[in-house]
Design a protein that fits this description.
Strand content: 5-15%
Number of strands: 3
Distance between the termini: 24 Å
Order of helices and strands: HEHEHEH
Radius of gyration: 13 Å
Mean pLDDT: 78
Amino acid sequence: MVHGHPIHLEHAITFAQRRRPNARPIFGAGLVGIELASEIRHYFPDIERISLFDPQHTVLPALPESAQKYATEWMERNNVELILGSDFNDESVKDAE
């Protein structure tokens, strides 16, 4: 589960591959997902596309809005694509085609 949403790994991977076939997908925009995306960007700057997927409509939903804004702006400045507000189920996978 990500933020109370059931996540089926197979659906999430299929969704990511169809939406962004050349990206490195990361599922979950909480503390771990944000840290992982920023570490990958820092240590592997040659990776062209990093996509962060989350069913919530914001990153770091458990933190204050100022932290959410800072993280969102950092991701945008550092070419980490945010795909937020999508559940990873049969319908969203079909919509990604």
